[in-house]
Structures are given as C-alpha cells and as structure tokens.
Amino acid sequence: MHVALYNMCFATLGGGERRTAALAAHLAQRHDVTLFVRSPIDASTIFGHFGIDIGAARIVALGDGDHAAEIGKHRPDLLINNSYASRLINPAPLGIYMCMFPDKDEIILDSYHVITANSHYTSGWIKRRWRYDAEVVYSACADFGPPLPKKKMILSVARFFADGPEIHHKRQDVLLDVFRRIADDGGTDWELHLIGSLGESDEDKAFCESLRARAAGYPVHIIPNADFDTLRDRYRRATIFWHGTGYGTTPDAEPAKQEHFGMTIVEAMSAGAIPDGVQFRRATRNNFVADQRLSLERRVRTQTRDASADARAGAPALSG
Predict the structure, then answer these.
(1) Is the domain of 126 the same as that of 172?
(2) 158 and 131, same domain (yes or no)
C-alpha cells in the first residue's frame, strides 16, 4: 500500500511532528510511504531532533501550491492528514484525519473515512465545534528511561513561541517567574532547564530572548532546538518536571489553550521525573490544566524541600 502522510507544520518539530515521524517510521516497515511537508527537511534532521529513523519513507516538499493536486499525482492508496487545522480535501481513495485540537472555525471532513482525536478532551471539542464523531488514538510517546542519578533540576520541555488567541502557549514565562521567586527565597541550589524547538518568526524569537533576559543571574538554562541526546539526558537527570500549558485560563472559555494530551508529561515520567512542579487538576478525562500561580509555588517549594531532605538522608537518587 502507498501511504501518504501530510503535515504542513513539520518545520516546528513539535509533538504533532514527532507523531508524524513515528507514523512514518512504523508504516515504512511494511508499506511505501511518502511524507508530504511544506518546506524541505531531511531524514537526518528528523533523527537528530526526535531520535526517529523514518527508514525508506520519502519526503516531498509541497511549498504553497495546490496540495491536493500534487499529492494526487503520487496516487496514494491512503492519506493520513496529521496537519493542524488542515482543510485539505482528501485526494486518496482512503483518508484518515488526525486532529490534535479542532480549530474554532468549522472544517468539512466528509472526504475522510476516519477522524481521530488525541484525547477524549479533544474528541469532545471536535463534536462541539465540527459536529463529527472522532475515535481516540493516543500519541505514541518515547521511552526516555532508564533514569540516571537525579540532580537538583527542574525541567520543562515545550516549544518556544509567541502567545496569541487560540495559541497553545506553553507558559514558560510563568514557570520562569515562579522559579525566580523560589530562587530569591533561598532555593538557588536548584536549576531550571527550559528545552524546546524555537519557532522561526520574529515574534517567537523575541519571546525566547525575553526569557533569556528574565533568566539573567539565575541558575536557568534555556536550550532551544536541543538535539535528541541532550533532551534525553535532561529527562533522565531531572527530578521535577514542569508544564505550564493552560495557566490562567479555563477549558470553557479558552479550550485550545489547555493541554490536549501532554506527550512530554508522559515522556518525563518514563525517565523517572516527577510532574509535581505544577498542581494539575483534571478538568476532563486526559486533560491536564495548570492551577493558579500560588498553588504552583507551594507545590514546587514542597517538592524541592522533600527532594533535598532525601538527599541529606542519603538517598542515592538525587545528586547536586
């Protein structure tokens, strides 16, 4: 079978793109696979960032032309559309539309045979916004274990990009502000590591630089576009994992700003990091929502104090 995978956001190298790469690697073991992207990218870049070898899958850059027509020329048997908010009409005999979260504007998906959602939370919003039923298919998450000796390290893994309406912002700014307050109160033997791909727009770069400016003088490491080996090392050594998506919002008022699944939370736990830095509450199944800033500070202060106490008691899992 010739399978076409479609992702026009691949240059962002985020969680959805990792999902696309994992699909390409798996399907290429038994099928003829073509990965359609907007701008050129090579297999070595994908491997360096995600640690995923897409094997014999071909990569075709479509640019800004008629994507349906161009894909149709390759005569795929199946199209899997894993591109955020895509309005592409399926040009293949069979089609699967994989939705990470539905855009607020209705999209017609009648040309697709199966619609999937990455969580029950997303599935519910697909029904509310687009009036389609969606089958829940969770994202494949990498196993970053086994853990290494843990350090006094708080880790957050999320893309760096500017905020805006309907933007799934990761709120590294909130996490950094909380860490600074904790450090000012005597918690300077801990480090905060912020890792993630960096968007290409001037606004995205300005956001990252604003974080650097606010982090000056603190034990904070900001690492955009880290390679896979660096990411895995931080996961394995981090004691606490932070995730700020959804801070300051509510699911009913701003559903797109919530965490829709949380791949990095699962990945962090696979390496033995504790996602206790942010107090999460379960708004709906499989949807983690950050609580208020004060609760965040209290939880992290408790966790860092307990971890330091374990170290003083001789626990081997934590090192300086």
Answers:
(1) no
(2) no
